[in-house]
Known about the structure:
Helix content of chain B: over 70%
Low-confidence stretches of chain B: none
Oligomer: heterodimer
Distance between the termini of chain B: 32 Å
Number of domains of chain B: 1
Order of helices and strands of chain A: HHHHHHHHHHHHHHH
Largest interface: A-B, 44 and 41 residues
Number of helices of chain B: 14
Strand content of chain B: under 5%
CATH architecture of chain B: Orthogonal Bundle
CATH superfamily of chain A: ABC transporter involved in vitamin B12 uptake, BtuC
CATH superfamily of chain B: ABC transporter involved in vitamin B12 uptake, BtuC
Order of helices and strands of chain B: HHHHHHHHHHHHHH
Structural class of chain A: mainly alpha
Radius of gyration of chain B: 20 Å
Mean pLDDT of chain A: 84
Strand content of chain A: under 5%
Shape of chain A: globular
Amino acid sequence: MTRTAACALGLVLLILLVALWSLATGAAGLSVAEAARALLAPGEGRADAILWQVRLPRVVAAIVAGAALGAAGAIMQAVTGNPLAEPGLLGVNAGAAFVVVLALSVFGVTASAALIWCAFGGAGSAAVLVYAMASAGRGGGTPIRLVLAGVIVATFLGALTTAILLIDSQTLDAVRFWTAGSLKGRQLAQILPVLPYAALSLAAALVFARQFTTLSLGGDVARSIGQNPALWRAIAACCVVGLAGSAVSIAGPLGFVGLVVPHMVRLTLGGGYGRILPLSILGGAALTLLADTAPRALLSVDMPAGITLALIGAPFFIWLARSHGAVRG
Amino acid sequence: MKLALLCALVALAFIAALALGDQPVPPGEVLGALFGSENVPAPSRIIVTELRLPRAVTALLVGAALAVAGTIAQAVMRNPLADPGIVGINAGAALAAMVVIVQVGSLPETALPWLTFTGALAMAALIYAFAWRQGTTGTRIILVGIGLSALAGAGASAISVFGEPAYVQRAMVWLAGSLQDSRWEKLPHLLGWSLPPALFAWAAARELDLIAMGDDVAQGRGQPVNLARALAILACAMLSGAAVAAAGLVAFVGLAAPHIARALTGPRHARLIPAAALVGAALLLTADIVARRTAPPLQLPVGLVTALLGAPFFAFLLWKRRND
């Protein structure tokens, strides 16, 4: 068995274990055995209600959003050649969240199926805006310009979102946990409509992993082996928008997953995106699930997963900015 | 001449801040109330001098303090994009205060500036420590600062999850950057913490000119570089701490004001520092009017308004520097 397969298997087992841990943790005491029983043989009891309405949606949300963000981060790093690229830092998540809040508040859209398209639209517009701002003029986007442009766009859209929520307290009530990056109170009915899009984007990311590897070698290399870089960059952007949009619709703007996970995979295993992408998907799911579960289980504090992830991810970002040779001017 | 023009602009913004509100007061009455004229009706006098004046004075001082802090930071870090807000110095100040507010609930007014100053200084030291690899570069300082800023922000949110809801709510309002809690009692602290470092920086304008040119030049001119830098950072932390203690997190004024001032008066700090202070004061006064009047009776946090105004400005700077 290769190291890659071993790592993948280990991550899958980790996800299953943490998922069980998460299902068995909460205000109403359910034993692991009870949780497993309710999961495998659904009935009408109290345990079943708690599991299917409160705890399972949370686990599903963490796994799907984490997987999507891990993949989105890997693709963005491949396409931009920027080790700091990530949907949270580059404002893509903030764009999706802003348009969703705008649609909820101003246009009164409430259907999940419509909101997901708002998330896609917001993610796409923010991505285009950040990329255009960073690469205006000669020389294209250097890592620092891309990060600064992302931080600016994220701050701006975040402030607009806050402004809307301050004025419209009804919408604030509906999305309070969601904008704070908490997975609390998610319903399966909100998650299920998003799943096909998330699955499609994840599948596309896996299928095109080889092309993304080529793209990561730079436009010249890509052209020399017959790839059309512009076309594949556009395809990559569509994948990122699909992934980040789905993740934000489910879990709110979670940062740093897409930064930390692909780097960890690259540091452990190295190699092309054929290896990095699938493991980033698994790793993203595991990390997000763990970030949602561990504070609740160990400290009995329901800390929003977004905060836990930032506490883990920000030091990692500092370390990258400090050590990475590519991060210059 | 340009400084006089800026003074007039600040005075105009100041009078507008006193005149506008749910109960508009004509500018003539505002001036009358300020100078203690007998002909002003009592309600107008009370509205102007007791309700709006403390807030306008706080906005003026906080704006000026943030602008001078930004000017110093840009000189010391030699990066026109450096700003105590972006590199996390303000976030450090806020985190330090947040930790204590959430634990203790209420604080004596005298203690708060000490806390924010300590937080700002600690953050500045951390940024330098992490960005130091045989010297620092402006790029690394900003990236490390962005990371630390995110960390401090997450820390503040985490604390708010653990804390007593009533205390947290109080801390959150302040964290969003608001002038709503401006009172006369708070002004002496603001003034005491911001005026000395601002005057000190102005007096040392020549040293700041040298620092901005680079270590080699400064050393060649006989400047003890590290001492000068340390004092400048100390002054910057005092100003940031004072501003954060008075108004919470107010973004982008520290970035934008020095740039606007530099376009007006050039890069020499002897003229740049007073100009930046005036621009900062005018910016924050205007932003606070917008914050109060956009959706009355609701008052938006002024930090939100400066973020909305400042982000496009930052984008413009980034675009302007595209060839660097």
